[in-house]
Fold Putative peptidase S8, subtilisin-related protein.
Amino acid sequence: MTLSLALALFPTVSIIHTHTLYIYCNCTLPPLPPSRYTCDQSPSSSLSLINSSFPFKTHLQEMASSHFPFLGLLLSLFLSHVIVFTYAKVYVVYMGSTDSQDPNEIVLHNHRILSSVHTGSVEEAQAAHLYSYKHGFKGFAAKLTEDQALQIAKMEGVVSVFENTKRRLHTTHSWDFIGLAEEETMEIPGFSTKNQVNVIIGFIDTGIWPESPSFSDAGMPPVPAGWKGICQSGEAFNSSNCNRKVIGARYYHSGYEAEEHNNLEKQQEDEYDDDPKKKVSYRSPRDSSGHGSHTASTAAGRYVQNMSYNGLASGGARGGAPMARIAVYKTCWDSGCYDADILAAFDDAVRDGVHIMSLSLGPDAPQGDYFSDAISIGSFHAVSRGITVVSSVGNEGTKGSATNLAPWLITVAASSTDREFTSKVLMGNGVRIKGESLSMHQMRAPARIISASIANRGYFTPYQSSYCLESSLNYTKTRGKVLLCRHTERSTGSKLAKSEVVKAAGGVGMILIDETDKDVAIPFVIPAAIVGKRMGNRILSYINSNTRNATLRIFASNAKLGAQPAPRVASFSSKGPNALTPEILKPDIAAPGLNILAAWSPAVGKMNFNVLSGTSMACPHVTGIVALIKAVHPTWSPSAIKSAIMTTATVFDKNGKPMRVDPDGRRGNAFDYGSGFIDPTTVLDPGLVYDAEPTDYKSFLCSIGYTEKMLRPITRDNSTCNDRTFSMPSSFNYPAILVPNLKSTFSVSRTLTNVKKQKQRTVYRAVVTTPHGIEVSVRPRKIAFTRYGQKVNFTVTFKVSKPSQGYVFGYLQWKHRNSRVTTPLVVRVAPSNLGATV
Ligand SMILES: *[C@@H]1O[C@H](CO)[C@@H](O)[C@H](O)[C@H]1NC(C)=O
Ligand SMILES: *[C@@H]1O[C@H](CO)[C@@H](O)[C@H](O)[C@H]1NC(C)=O
Ligand SMILES: *[C@@H]1O[C@H](CO)[C@@H](O)[C@H](O)[C@H]1NC(C)=O
Ligand SMILES: *[C@@H]1O[C@H](CO)[C@@H](O)[C@H](O)[C@H]1NC(C)=O
Ligand SMILES: *[C@@H]1O[C@H](CO)[C@@H](O)[C@H](O)[C@H]1NC(C)=O
Ligand SMILES: *[C@@H]1O[C@H](CO)[C@@H](O)[C@H](O)[C@H]1NC(C)=O
Ligand SMILES: *[C@@H]1O[C@H](CO)[C@@H](O)[C@H](O)[C@H]1NC(C)=O
Ligand SMILES: *[C@@H]1O[C@H](CO)[C@@H](O)[C@H](O)[C@H]1NC(C)=O
């Protein structure tokens, strides 16, 4: 098989569409050559039609008319007829807030719009219709041609029309590590979180494996009154699968099936029993991937006494809010999650009565406009109704790759914990090293180690075979040996495949040199371990100086506590700045997302628990903590909850040193971890919060260029951009202050709200750690609070003193005795200002 063939085959295999960096799937993932990994499963062009007079043409028509004017006319006449049948795609038509309109009225209106672009045909309109969104917000999803989409985009009341884009889905010990006791009855000193039984968390994910002990309802009180959700029946799932823990379950597949031309066919149980490589996609809320069960159990799983990954890391484990309720919205299928389905899930969740939504998925960077992205739209309406929405920042790892950028979302970065899964490696010269691995295999005796580059086969160059690409290894040269393979790009899925390639070529072990994600443990199919570049070079020089008899022995993986330093920001965790609105910090917060053990779907690999890495795993840690805050402070707004999480976070590791970032251990900053690593022991008592109302989100949208005309249908109230409370996005009352373009001086105001129930006056004092080369002054410098709910404004002024290039970082802390309310200060001096002085 040639390389190009392997590449061409890639798009059909796509299990990793989540914000999970690594999913165990026990199936062959195709090899990818280094540096050409483009992940092109999602439609390459995301078309977004905001209501405007922008002239819009299909590419076909444009080409025809510019090159052959006359022919073009004929062609486009011909095409406009044919296109209806051949080029219909799914579009989401978003029409803003429901304005408490009758849902039936909305459906009727949607059908009228659809039949009007289908020249009045009711049948065609019905055939094209996928969903009507009518509870949380207004709109629909339908199969449309580009022409029809354009017609609808021009209609009164339509905010945006966009393609049904595919999104990717981006614990046990992690909870003790971040400071919550292990048992289910755990309480945070001074607060009772018993009320978590009244907190309902909605998960937009791959569904749930309801039989998992993590989702047992033993000892749980009846379902909270007022819950309007349902338990939707489907393949291998019926209403008996819901209980007092999993109180609701729905599934959405119309958007997926319309795009993938793939009916989720009913499959027999024994089909996958015999062949674990075969995929199952239950056409029901049942989880066939494992991702959804993993995230739900991380946030809200019950205490399970004996949780382990094939016996590794065994022990008791539970989710963050083990008594909170779970509502399942399965929208993610084998290859990803489509906008049309995500919006349908949001629409139902808002009506069902969830309190929190958790989405471990997101768009590819760079993210599109806020109102042409299902997660931004759905969460805007959810947050406007007091529902907190938590999401993952993404796994692209590079600067500026952060996604889920809207200020109303809580966006989570991934960090390590102090638990590592490592394999010991003993070299023939007596040197002992260790590498990351989840492999249960172990070598009985030392074997020769060679560099994979000298085991190249046929037409493959030594360079190609050094990456252990499929078919690149010569059996004669590989048989019985340990291979030293390379891995440089973030094509994480192929790491497991490399161990399969080496195994197929007769190799008995593998050392994988990985410069980027070396901290992610992978369940290799042979004894194997991942090492960094430095250790890799040491092994290489050992091989080169003992070309005939360099040997090595790899042992089975071990779980080890006490890894140092911890936490560190994971190398794959996507980084700021915010590509859409640089004044808004993203990510907001960091939580454990590296090698997390939690519940799994036995449909994959027949395992009940699994170890996964990704910002997908970090997100539900924050979701669990939001549930605890909600239990203790049920009236707090989503922004107050977010502020409590952000201002109490720490930027120090467990040794009290500044938190570092993998893979090179550089010192971290707010673009790596937001306001820091989450601290559940202090979130319930933040002292002060930076609160915001739904009207502030409107002001924010005005400040970034949304006109009243665009805003009116989104919000459907009488607010205008004139009565906004601020005019610059940096004035949004965010618990972080970012000044991306500081000319000489600039002032920013914030409002603090006192949330400490108190008898006496408390005085907070401002303490600033200045960003390098910037003068910062705070007015007033002392603030006294006398009552609960009191609001006080303050102003921070930034002044350039010694300009430097790029972003510089500092902090503002409001201190009262031992209380600290901390916000990051992030400043970049304007390039013009730099030129003048440097
Ligand atoms: C959309 O555009 C049409 C014509 O261009 C206009 O009549 C209509 O009011 C616009 N709708 C909104 C919501 O701006
Ligand atoms: C659900 O399915 C199980 C197993 O197939 C069956 O025993 C049970 O009766 C079903 N319950 C309902 C309410 O249909
Ligand atoms: C936990 O499970 C492991 C393997 O599955 C078993 O060996 C061990 O005895 C179990 N421990 C308890 C306390 O059940
Ligand atoms: C594999 O290596 C052996 C020994 O070096 C050589 O004879 C054989 O031709 C090679 N096979 C291929 C397919 O490269
Ligand atoms: C194997 O390597 C050692 C050094 O590590 C060397 O002393 C010895 O002579 C080598 N043996 C053979 C058979 O090459
Ligand atoms: C993975 O699949 C192979 C067959 O392809 C099977 O022999 C092996 O036991 C599976 N591993 C796990 C952990 O399920
Ligand atoms: C908007 O204004 C109109 C007329 O002034 C009024 O009838 C309507 O109730 C207002 N709507 C809202 C949501 O305030
Ligand atoms: C704080 O500032 C806002 C506008 O930025 C203003 O509306 C409000 O009245 C101020 N509050 C106090 C207590 O000064």
User: Anything to note?
Assistant: The radius of gyration is 27 Å. The chain has a mean pLDDT of 81. The first strand starts at residue 20 and ends at 22.
